[in-house]
């Protein structure tokens, strides 16, 4: 098994931490992982993206141009990465703020209204966990128990009381994701 | 097995330094290596092992603090990124001239000048051909994973003390900023004063006792005849290092008809290029220099008997290619490829360059 993922959106949406939790979940089930951020003068409101690779074998390049799955959270990222999904791959996006929707017909496209769901949960901070839930529903490459273990590893201990809330958000994302026909 | 963690390359340099029993880190922040100093400050190792962590007033101050610590036989280090490394060059040649062991980490960014904060490999010449003045060499290690960022801290100090020479970890913003699984080294206690005297008492300024001469750490010798003899001694040391310390890794070379030579982050990207090229039926392998000085010239020369051409891949305008060409001695075509100025080369571009410059060329 090898899954090459790009998660891209605005800085402040939790893109990098979602990638980190996913990578830690991979470690929890003995996989090789890499987490390669775009870094630089990025800040809240700017663009942020991270390439995460989970694999049963040694990972060659952590920097890649073609992805099995793209998780897209703003228009700029959709414009930038839609064409980099491998044929037969998956694109998951939040339609919030999107005016030009994905057009590819050789990939499977899913929508997750994560911003809307987070508002419904009355907790904007759960946004990235809702997105993670949607991803895991579509690509169940890591077991839920390993995601929770990954969450424990990537959150400082003082935030461990928030794990049940995150779990709830993941479940919410799993239920809310829909395939775009 | 040690502890498994998901960490950034830069964070691992800091953690590995604490675990290697380092006595002092002196640095100044610069992107993309600031997490080294940040992690050390957050970890507060002075409470745990007594390790000193100091944000100096400048890169120049930091490297001279390293000179001071190294003169006392202590395990000391600094880190920076390209523009900061240029500032440290005077101190580095003094350390090499005084034969002082230390570890210097360069997390390279694109240049020249202040350049960009994105990854590049354009400091090869500065690292292996001098940078500072005079006939000196650094022992240069090029990690290509977060795990090796951990491993080469210990290795760098071992080699530095074995040869009484500064060692450098030459990495870049890609390895420094990315996270991978890492098995951290076990804790090694810092050396006691007695251990330092036993290990380095013949040269370190550990305090003069009645039964020995003064130890002086200096790179100054005004008698040219003596300075030439000292230079002979240095060159003999570099030759010994070349004979004993070459490290490299081969990937899919057994049946290779073509070869990539690449170090650090480019070698990771080239592994993917090897996979992509082989899907197209192109038999290409990768030779990765792990030590850039000493350079695996002999091993590259041997590969020239087997392959039809070599693509030297580096995120620069073409620096390491000079050493690859010298190793091959004009027997087969050698070309350079790489994006630079902060752009990361893609695996597909490398395959394309191989097809155009070597196979088609």
Radius of gyration of chain A: 15 Å
- Radius of gyration of chain B equals 21 Å
The level of helicity of chain B is 40-55%
Quick one: CATH superfamily of the largest domain in chain B? Thiamin diphosphate (ThDP)-binding fold, Pyr/PP domains
Q: Mean pLDDT score of chain B, rounded? A: 97
Overall geometric form of chain B: globular
The helicity of chain A comes to 25-40%
Count the helices of chain A. How many?
6
Reading the helices and strands of chain B in chain order gives: EHEHHEHEHEHEHEHEHHEEHEEHEHEH
CATH top level assignment of chain A: Alpha Beta
Based on helices, strands and strand pairing, what is the structural class of chain B?
A: alpha/beta
Structure write-up:
The complex is a heterodimer of chains A (181) and B (361). With 181 residues, chain A is an alpha/beta fold. Chain A is built from six helices and seven strands; from the N terminus they run E-H-E-E-E-H-E-E-H-H-H-H-E. Chain A is globular. The mean pLDDT of chain A is 94. Chain B has two domains: 180 residues, Rossmann fold, CATH 3.40.50.970; 111 residues, Rossmann fold. In chain B, helix 5 links the parallel strand 4 and strand 5. In chain B, helix 1 packs across helix 7, helix 4 runs parallel beside helix 5 and helix 12 crosses helix 13. Chain B starts with a strand and ends with a helix. The mean pLDDT of chain B is 97. At the A-B interface, helix 1 and strand 2 of A face helix 8, strand 8 and helix 11 of B. Strand 2 of chain A pairs antiparallel with strand 8 of chain B, so a sheet runs across the interface.
